[in-house]
């Protein structure tokens, strides 16, 4: 069987919600990405700082200059200096950034989010209601004790008895959605055709009814009943947030609710009240029905399960599809249609706007005409900008912004109008339509998208200079008004600017403010973005680097052979994404340095002359040296020569290299450097050797030597490791003792007295120092933070595994002790205890470091195991009102990290030298990241961005002996490292358009700003060919004489739009388009493939050519035509100054297909022919020298071929039909013919299909429209297969929220000790593929193949997730199946969902509706790699127990197997 493994998480944002979730005061954004739930908080960052940081990382030098006159409103300086000069305005506004708090993968597809206000949550924040496909609800809240979400309740409405009639369509065929009452009194889930599940909430409902109680109107306030204690000790008032839910049939509320369209709960009602849009007849555009819809408002009496109709508006346009409840003062409901917007207030009065000329034709409803806007409202989203003045923003499905303004007179709405935001004002910053809008604060909102990056958008109001001066003349004292509104974006109300002393000023300001709010034009800009590669439309593998020979020599062995290149995004959000498994560093310099074993670069200050020495002078001198602005000056290198002789040398750094420094008091033969750094505010250079600590001044004059002498025993223990954090140093020695010293103001290093007896009596394994800038480890938490040097925390790990924490310089007692770190529990606390005899891991090193980027960083505890795996713990404090005691409030939560370290074949060091493990290196700034580097056999960075959790990413290349930061003018914020082959490289992590932590891989995204859906790689020229679509107005055929009625439509201005294809050639060295071919009008590209075709019948010469299949669609009343175009990529003379434009597309063949489109193309056979799926035929064609494509064989198909595949060189083909499933055929060349072997019996709606060779078996993998992955097999010997005419159905596995739409069979890389490789080669040595052995044509059996190389299938989905399907050997399959069952029962599952049920084929899917004809599965299922990836979340003892129970020798064997089957391990060439 097989293992399905997810490589990257989904990136498409489907839902979002803004609410205080973590606590009552927090401002959180909850984002749903199909099956991933993320919780963000917001952070305000100065716009100037943000731009400076970005320019520092993204470009070498900014050309902008600042001029004080830019903020000179009165124009005084301009009048003297000339008004035409170019000015750059200093940006005084703030940007709102998102910072990820936690993320949770869920075993379900999220279909809705809703906030529930409650006072009963543990955190004090609000609860969150999640709706899942098909009809499930989970209520979750934040648990501050576990720093995670906890499930409050689960509700399930998929039972048979709730589904109505037996002939009703399955739940998945209906639009199911969630709506909640604004007062949090109840929620409603509409599911099925006309069912409504009502879930009531308790405490919110009681509070709400009492809050607005008016004793004059409502009589005396009733006394709240006290809860009575019953006999069994339970309270009569259950302390749950919710009551029992019930299901209503909508026709029971009102008989006319037969075809509900949409509903929403309305604001400002005492009882839960919802408005519903429905019809008594089924909507139809064909039957000519008009104005069939009715909007009705019902008030619910939840106790009585009854309702009252408040109002009803009939005769509404048929194209309305959504109800949006508007808050006060506008109130009422906004009904959204494809051609109009209609507002209905609480009295039933309506106002509408038609936004295109079809509004008049589609409805007789009274509408204000704004047809000149020519808008299409399908798929639009609406969110409030300012409810006080009735302003709302609408994002259209092409990304344009429209401002909706309601005219409010008192409590009445007198009309509404729409205005397009111009591109100059930021109206085009969203590239394509959005799926969700959530307002974050007063001046920004989050726009989540399924077709492009999701954006945080802020707005401000532009004012004219005249208005500003008027305001200042009215009130000269209120000079603050001179600031623009955007300068005060994230402040509170504008009124807060004025103090109480300025009452007249306040009134004037308010009057002016309202005036400005109305007249100031809104300007939008992007504050932040969430990277997305959804939807993945097509992908290929190719070399995404330039063909520069010098650069290739530099990158030999340290750049991936191939890259995964996909086209993603919709509309103007179309992009090319280049993905690699590992970090591909950018190399600045390369040096042969075989003796180097460790590097330490440093910024040291020159010594102060004696005449200037003193405290004040030291302060003033040190202030002149700004550390961040100063480049590294020196580098100490630890060396070992070929004879094993150990020395150290010092070098002075140049632009991109280094030179040896001589003539100093530095002693190279003093020994091997263990650690180096600076102390005393960069005035002292510290070198830690095996036997002593040497202190030098800034010019390497020796200042002090601190020997490692034990005064009691006289022993001189060698130093094993050290940690420096100014002004302290920690040294761990080989006798397991420690040495702690402090650098005092006289720049002398003195040992601190170990007052706590534990420090001297305990054997210590490792330790580190950490500067606690956030105050997380402080006994008393405060917002002020501590000054530098006063907040150093010491972490020590004893040989027994206890973690001790000390706040330096106090060594009298530990502020925190946790005994259980080697057991790696999911939650580590001071009171954690493990059972006696529980297995534990060996931890060889710990490091506490800040991980993050320019926006935010957070401390993490990183534990490195003996096998180089790392466990990352996130420390957090439990909010406690009773105590601030660290042992009680500080906990460590283990983060999920499925990455397992590699066992490299090549030894890191030569045989005759000491084998030592280089320690982890804390890096304060590598290309803008605060990160930790793990050297050794599996060199990796632990990277974290503000929008992702920490991820371990391997550095491409060999094992690393030593690494250090390298910050010089020629290599800014880079690093230097020496690999196991003795090569030292000065490098940078590329960050321009590149992200890492977001998907756990290296992702470079190149926006192309067009709708791209096909890509192919042309190997011989090293270029990529992409298929674009541009939208054009549809023109009716001019030559038509039959349709006289078309004459009435010739003056139509608002024309339908049709696709027109373009083929573009892209050079990967610069990722620019170098050639474009435009197709005919109405012709769109269906597929692009690069095929190795025979171009000469006489010489049989072969050539790689680009083949394009197209469809010409001129409307539904004309037949579809198609074309097959064949292009060659030829070399040409490049344009001046653009050396990349040295290639062009040359047309080789152009074949018209009169009936049907060319939907899929593949290579076939051994003679260089192609297989083309054209209409309802699959035809084999050969390229003739005259540019025609000669058909030689064909096969009739059923409906529409979505994919064709050939098992390379065998003639065995698979065809996927969009309705009729999978066809397995054979092709012979002597004579030319195609033979049908077998087909799938079910009505599979097949999206993509692929072969999967598995030893001497040949399997077929088909993916359907429901997200099901079906394993099929051709077996003519099976009694039920009708001599092979029916393909055997082995099993079906659900991909859940990430249905595969593209697939590719790829070679699989396996480790040398792979169980699958050994069994596969032995078992297949004498066999051929199953099909060749079982009645395949003579061609296949007469060419017995060696066993096929190991294969793996790569899947891509519309949510941006990548996954693999890899075959397993039978013994391994059984053990992994048992392992998943054990993991399933050992781990908590968020939101109460069942991962096993999630992966089962949906009962409403094709297998449930039409059972397969020959089910040969015998209850076997594909192994779920998402569960196996959580193996490291289990504690060490439980892992050992499970490994033994399942049949593995030990935990190490499980680790080897998981490294082989999980992640991108099988794709080593990426």
> Can you give the helix content as a percent range?
10-25%
| Oligomeric nature of the chains | single chain
Structural class: mainly beta
Strand content: 35-45%
**How many beta-strand elements?**
88
Strand order of the largest sheet: 85-86-87-1-88
Number of helices: 21
Report the principal-axis shape.
globular
Radius of gyration: 35 Å
Report mean pLDDT, rounded to a whole number: 85
Please mark out the parts with pLDDT under 50 across 5 or more consecutive residues, or reply none. 58-88, 204-209, 224-238, 476-518, 617-628, 1323-1344
The biggest beta sheet is recorded as: 5 strands, mixed
The span between the termini is: 25 Å
Name its key features.
1470 residues; mainly beta; five-stranded mixed sheet; 21 helices; 11% helix; 40% strand
Quick overview:
The protein has 1470 residues and is mainly β.
Topology:
Blueprint: E1 2-6, E2 15-19, E3 28-33, E4 36-46, H1 47-58, H2 76-81, E5 94-105, E6 110-116, E7 127-132, E8 136-143, E9 148-156, E10 177-180, E11 186-191, E12 195-200, H3 203-211, H4 215-218, E13 246-249, H5 250-253, E14 259-265, E15 273-279, E16 293-301, E17 306-316, E18 320-325, E19 333-337, E20 340-344, E21 350-354, H6 358-362, E22 368-369, E23 381-386, E24 391-395, E25 401-409, E26 412-420, E27 436-441, E28 444-448, E29 454-462, H7 465-474, H8 503-519, E30 521-530, E31 536-542, H9 549-554, E32 563-568, E33 575-580, E34 586-592, E35 596-602, H10 615-624, E36 634-640, E37 646-653, E38 658-660, E39 675-679, E40 684-688, E41 692-696, E42 702-707, E43 719-725, E44 728-733, E45 738-743, E46 749-751, H11 757-761, E47 764-771, E48 792-798, E49 803-807, E50 816-818, E51 827-828, E52 843-852, E53 857-865, E54 870-877, H12 886-889, E55 890-894, E56 921-926, E57 929-934, E58 940-943, E59 951-954, E60 960-966, E61 974-979, E62 983-988, E63 994-995, E64 1002-1007, E65 1011-1018, E66 1023-1033, E67 1057-1067, E68 1072-1078, ...
Parallel strand pairs: 1-88, 21-22
Antiparallel strand pairs: 1-87, 2-3, 3-4, 4-5, 6-7, 7-8, 8-9, 10-11, 11-12, 12-13, 14-15, 15-16, 16-17, 18-19, 19-20, 20-21, 23-24, 24-25, 25-26, 27-28, 28-29, 29-30, 31-32, 32-33, 33-64, 34-62, 35-36, 36-37, 37-38, 39-40, 40-41, 41-42, 43-44, 44-45, 45-46, 47-48, 48-49, 49-50, 51-55, 52-53, ...
Helix pairs in contact: 16-20
